[in-house]
């Protein structure tokens, strides 16, 4: 397989809001050339773009932040350089978000439709991730008798990896290896670290710098400290003990732990000053042991999400457990969940269980987006936004290709004229619409 | 199927989010289910909750339950029995039999001539005529509540009223999923907060009805409202010592929704501390962009001052007092200690009354949802799905 296709990206009117919204995209691995221009909608600007395209280092063109009406002109320029009109997109300034830009990039680089017909249905589940939740998910998948492959995040160079296809026929090219699967599950946990420092004589202070995922380590550190001499202080921002955890919290207090709620602490030479929000005055503690429990998000999460064409801020949405809003891709684990649950492993088991009904079934004939041509103002928002390239413009009006539409609902949320509808019973559409910050109409 | 028997493989008790998710999951996998619900309709508490993100989604998950409900109602494999009460449950050869009673409709719609004589005769207003139909509110009917009355029966010219008619049915299953949920803390038990005595004090459940447009409240631009969190939870004297884990989240969503509706409504939240929130649910970040005040204090009492609720609370070393137009008590979740089904099935409880799974799985009983301890909708749904899996394993159902 050759080098993956890359796009040339131009930011038009590259200042102010355009720059803020789009600059992040320039570092995208699939962007082969990027440039900021004062205006590409001018004769001069277009010549510049054309000059680059004729150099043939890129195979697609994306122009960010100008007017939607310019699309046709860019398509004409691109054809001269052998780039088909489907590989050209404009993200108009009205839609000035990095998310929209990313989707448009995915669209111009997309070649799944041509190469992977819908018949190539796979019932495999690809689990990517590590940690307790991923282990639980894998176990559950095996117990459910699923055809599951597990990829450790370290096994793949995600910056080089290339994902094509869609639900039922994903292909992940990672170096020499090709993985075929029907559904993907991405699972990562926040990793918990404990730092200890010792300063001679005094009391023990355990600082919590994380959420409920740190609870177990935090309690065990406090337990350990209680068995030593000296007082035990727990410094927190917000107590992470929700639900049944309250019982633990009260027990620790009874056993002599003093909880301090302090946004920041200063340690100097074995002596620590905290300002407890409740007391309101500084408290000085002579510290023997300072223990910090903190959590961090594994770096691989962002890389994997990027390979799947999703922004790092993507979280599951509530409607189906673990649903990422992108058809066929699910996520679980504490690093990817917006909720703090005391048991992320149980949640990932639920996610896998709920996939069983989906995975074996052939590609559902998804309810299609339909355009009400009376209302449609031909603004082409849907065309630029659709990750599957389903909307197209012909004979003076917009259409949505039944073959390509995946029912994701993103166009529904973004359509300024509210001209797009989908059968309201479809979860996926609702999910997509919520992701885009809108609701079902 | 009056008096009849039907055969189901799994009996799910309770039609809240956990029970619905479990039933739906089982049905998707081809297992037949009998869903028992004591209320008149499915959805559990969520029937009384409102969407808390009308302009911008705040992921309160309430819509999710409505979806699950339609999925369950549409499924051919799920038989739903609403308004049922358990008479007894028996276990034989690993198979459970639930004997149930269901009160019949008090008014036989086929006979009723809609003359309205019963409506006039009813002393409590339990009989009403709505949309051309006579309906009875069972909770305010004197006869059904055990008092002497039956005036409606005697005035009815066509003999269409039978207040005590009931129907018996039994349901079988090889496994049982218990998803009986939880109760809200009854706010009137916390005497010092004046619920039911001081006007303008309402519970968060009432606020949900207000947000749904089903109830009036003194909430609009220019008014002052307060939320008091942890009512009936984290308390050693009333309610439960546990944290209810949902009320920080729903109260924040409620407050933000109110702010969205009435930008000039002044809101104060009295909290102990924020629980169960995470950075990326965005609630605290959204809170910071509003002028909602947060006071870390557990108010001592609410009393009436000039007909409005006044909150007395500690602030630093002082005691302060503030008047509001409306005070919302954010009630926590409590286990239902009197549920007869649970005692008949001998399901063990932890010291705080929540159900424990101990030795349940061996006899084909699985627990899901907030009967296992307070938890939010998302978690209840996940619980239900996991319980469905366990039940299927118990039945030895083939996968794939
Ligand atoms: C004011 C308020 C607002 C809330 N807002 C939110 C929110 O925005 N988001 C969120 O995630 N959570 C919210 N919650 C919490 C949410 O209501 C609960 O998490 C959820 O309802 C629990 O679901 P469940 O299935 O466990 O039980 P329930 O919803 O309590 O349902 C249990 C069902 O079982 C039935 N039942 C009980 N016993 C029997 C029996 N013996 N036989 C037959 N049927 C029986 C009951 O009638 C009931 O229908 C809120 C709670 C309150 C009080």
What does this structure look like?
The complex is a heterodimer of chains A (441) and B (400). In chain A, strands 11, 12, 13, 14, 15, 16 and 17 form a seven-stranded mixed β-sheet that branches. Chain A has helices at 16-22, 43-54, 71-80, 98-109, 112-115, 132-143, 215-226, 245-254, 300-307, 344-359, 381-385, 410-414, 427-435, and strands at 7-11, 31-36, 60-66, 88-92, 124-130, 147-151, 162-164, 170-174, 177-181, 183-188, 191-198, 203-209, 232-236, 257-261, 265-268, 271-275, 282-296, 329-332, 370-371, 391-394, 397-400, 420-421. Chain A has four domains: 7-108, 3-Layer(aba) Sandwich (Rossmann fold); 118-190 and 299-359, FAD/NAD(P)-binding domain (3-Layer(bba) Sandwich); 192-295, FAD/NAD(P)-binding domain (3-Layer(bba) Sandwich); 370-423, Alpha-Beta Plaits. With 441 residues, chain A is of the alpha/beta class. Mean pLDDT of chain A is 81; it is low at 112-118. With 400 residues, chain B is an alpha/beta fold. Chain B folds into three domains: 9-102 and 168-182 and 335-395, FAD/NAD(P)-binding domain (3-Layer(bba) Sandwich), CATH 3.50.50; 105-164, Alpha-Beta Plaits; 184-333, FAD/NAD(P)-binding domain. The two termini of chain B are 32 Å apart. Chains A and B meet through α8, α10 and α13 of A and α2 and α9 of B. The complex binds flavin-adenine dinucleotide (FAD). Flavin-adenine dinucleotide (FAD) binds at residues 13-19, 36-39, 44-46, 49, 52, 60-62, 179-182, 184, 204-205, 208, 246, 250, 253, 331, 339, 341, 369-370, 375-378, 380 of chain B.
Number of helices, where a helix is a run of at least 4 consecutive DSSP H or I residues of chain B = 9
Q: What is the typical, i.e. mean, pLDDT of chain B?
A: 90
CATH superfamily of the largest domain in chain B: FAD/NAD(P)-binding domain
The coarse overall form of chain B would be globular
What structural class do helix, strand and pairing data of chain A support?
alpha/beta
On the 0 to 100 scale, the average pLDDT of chain A is 81
The biggest sheet of chain B amounts to:
5 strands, parallel
- Strand percentage of chain A lies at 25-35%
In this entry the ligands are: flavin-adenine dinucleotide
Major sheet strand order of chain B = 4-3-2-10-21
> Helix proportion of residues of chain B, in percent?
10-25%
Tally the beta strands of chain B: 21
- Residue stretches of chain B low in confidence (pLDDT < 50, at least 5 long) are 1-5
- Under CATH, the topology of the largest domain in chain A can be stated as FAD/NAD(P)-binding domain
- Terminus-to-terminus distance of chain B: 32 Å
Judging from the principal axes of the Cα atoms, what is the shape of chain A? elongated
Whole-angstrom Rg of chain B: 23 Å
Strand content of chain B: 25-35%
The CATH architecture of the largest domain in chain B is: 3-Layer(bba) Sandwich
């Amino acid at each position: 397989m050759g080098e993956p296709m890359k796009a040339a990206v131009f930011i038009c009117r590259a200042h102010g809001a355009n720059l803020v919204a789009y600059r992040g995209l320039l570092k995208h691995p699939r962007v082969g050339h990027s440039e900021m221009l004062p205006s590409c909608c001018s004769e001069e600007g277009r010549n510049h773009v054309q000059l680059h395209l004729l150099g043939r280092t890129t195979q697609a063109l994306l122009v960010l932040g100008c007017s939607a009406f310019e699309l046709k002109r860019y398509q004409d320029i691109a054809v001269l350089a052998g780039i088909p009109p489907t590989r050209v997109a404009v993200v108009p300034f009205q839609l000035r978000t990095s998310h929209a830009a990313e989707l448009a990039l995915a669209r111009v680089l997309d070649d799944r439709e041509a190469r992977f017909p819908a018949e190539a249905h796979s019932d495999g589940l690809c689990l990517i991730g590590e940690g307790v939740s991923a282990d639980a998910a894998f176990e559950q998948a095996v117990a459910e008798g699923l055809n599951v492959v597990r990829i450790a995040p370290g096994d793949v160079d995600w910056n080089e990896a290339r994902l094509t296809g869609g639900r039922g026929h994903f292909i992940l090219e990672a170096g020499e290896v090709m993985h075929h699967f029907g559904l993907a599950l991405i699972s990562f946990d926040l990793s918990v670290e404990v730092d200890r420092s010792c300063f001679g004589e005094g009391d023990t202070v355990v600082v919590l710098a994380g959420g409920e995922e740190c609870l177990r380590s935090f309690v065990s550190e406090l337990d350990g400290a209680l068995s030593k001499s000296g007082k035990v202080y727990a410094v927190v921002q917000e107590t992470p003990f929700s639900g049944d955890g309250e019982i633990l919290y009260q027990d620790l207090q009874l056993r002599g732990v003093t909880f301090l709620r302090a946004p920041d602490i200063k340690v100097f030479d074995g002596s620590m000053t905290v300002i407890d929000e409740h007391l309101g005055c500084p408290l000085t503690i002579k510290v023997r042991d300072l223990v910090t429990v903190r959590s961090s998000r594994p770096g691989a999460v962002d890389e994997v999400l990027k390979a799947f064409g999703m922004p790092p801020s993507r979280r599951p949405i509530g409607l189906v457990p673990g649903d990422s809003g992108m058809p066929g891709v699910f996520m679980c684990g504490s690093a990817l969940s917006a909720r703090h649950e005391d048991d992320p492993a149980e949640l990932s088991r639920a996610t896998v269980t709920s996939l069983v009904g989906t995975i074996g079934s052939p590609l559902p004939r998804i309810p299609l987006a339909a355009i009400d041509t009376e209302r449609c103002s031909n603004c082409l928002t849907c065309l630029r936004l659709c990750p599957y390239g389903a909307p197209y413009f012909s004979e003076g009006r917009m259409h949505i290709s039944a073959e390509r539409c995946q029912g994701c609902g993103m166009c529904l949320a973004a359509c300024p004229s509210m001209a797009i509808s989908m059968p309201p019973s479809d979860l996926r559409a609702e999910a997509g619409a919520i992701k885009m910050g809108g609701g079902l109409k | 199927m009056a008096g009849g028997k039907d055969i189901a493989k799994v009996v799910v008790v309770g039609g809240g989010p956990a029970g619905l998710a479990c039933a739906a999951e089982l049905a998707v996998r081809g297992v037949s289910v009998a869903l028992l619900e004591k209320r008149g309709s499915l959805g559990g508490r969520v029937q009384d909750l409102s969407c808390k993100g009308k302009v911008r989604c705040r992921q309160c998950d309430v819509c999710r339950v409505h979806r699950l409900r339609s999925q369950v109602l549409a499924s051919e494999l799920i038989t739903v029995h609403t308004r049922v009460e358990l008479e007894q449950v028996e276990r034989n050869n690993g198979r459970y039999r639930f004997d149930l009673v269901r009160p019949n409709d008090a008014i036989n719609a086929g006979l009723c001539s809609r003359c309205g004589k019963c409506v006039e005769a009813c002393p409590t207003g339990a009989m009403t005529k709505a949309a051309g139909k006579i309906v009875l509110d069972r909770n305010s009917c004197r006869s059904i509540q055990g008092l002497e009355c039956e005036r409606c029966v005697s005035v009815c010219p066509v003999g269409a009223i039978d207040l005590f008619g009931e129907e018996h049915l039994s349901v079988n299953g090889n496994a049982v999923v218990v998803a009986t949920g939880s109760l809200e803390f009854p706010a009137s038990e916390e005497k010092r907060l004046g619920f039911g005595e001081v006007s303008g004090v309402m519970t968060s459940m009432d606020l949900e009805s207000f947000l749904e447009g089903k109830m009036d409240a003194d909430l609009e631009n220019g008014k002052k409202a307060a939320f008091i969190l942890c009512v009936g939870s984290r308390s050693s004297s009333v309610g439960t010592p546990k944290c209810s884990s949902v009320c920080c989240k729903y109260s924040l969503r409620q407050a933000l929704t109110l702010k969205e509706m009435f930008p000039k409504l002044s809101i104060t939240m009295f909290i102990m501390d924020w629980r169960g929130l995470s950075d990326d649910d965005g609630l605290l970040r959204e809170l910071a962009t509003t002028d909602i005040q947060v006071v870390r204090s557990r108010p001592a009492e609410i009393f009436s001052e000039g007909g409005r609720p006044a909150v007395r609370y500690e602030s630093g070393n002082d005691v302060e007092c503030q008047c509001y137009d409306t005070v919302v008590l954010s009630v926590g979740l409590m286990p239902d200690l009197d549920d007869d089904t649970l005692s008949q099935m001998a399901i063990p409880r932890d010291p705080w009354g929540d159900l424990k799974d101990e030795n349940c799985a061996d006899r084909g009983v699985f627990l899901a949802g907030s009967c296992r301890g307070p938890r939010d909708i998302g978690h209840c749904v996940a619980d239900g799905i996991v319980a469905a899996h366990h039940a299927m394993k118990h039945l030895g159902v083939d996968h794939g």
